[in-house]
């Protein structure tokens, strides 16, 4: 293989910060991953991360959020970047049983093989990785 070629493919989409854009993000993800055994999990992860960006950051309303989807033979990586500006960095929480919010990123961390948060108050990127090789003893990357 040539040193400047890659088997990874990357797609990007920027969405306005309106609630109906979450369904657009899901549809976009599903279309790209059509036929993949990881499509359902990826769609759920993108839905949750997109909703979080709209509900909990400056991306909601007049803002926007950006999705990136990278596919390689070993991993599907889904990233959502928000416009920050609201509170602390996204993190997995252990809410009380009667709490209305706080379970989404925990759900993502259970579905994904790895979740990474990068950024600062001006914007965060949450990346969830789904490994394609999850056989016992297999190396995911």
UniProtKB/TrEMBL annotation:
Keywords: ATP-binding, Kinase, Nucleotide-binding, Serine/threonine-protein kinase, Transferase
Molecular function in Gene Ontology: ATP binding; protein serine/threonine kinase activity
Histidine kinase/HSP90-like ATPase domain segment(s): 19-128
Alphabetical list of Pfam families matching this protein: HATPase_c_2
Superkingdom field: Bacteria
UniProt KW Nucleotide-binding keyword: yes
Keyword Transmembrane attributed: no
The protein's name in its UniProt record: ATP-binding protein
Source organism phylogeny: Bacteria, Bacillati, Actinomycetota, Actinomycetes, Kitasatosporales
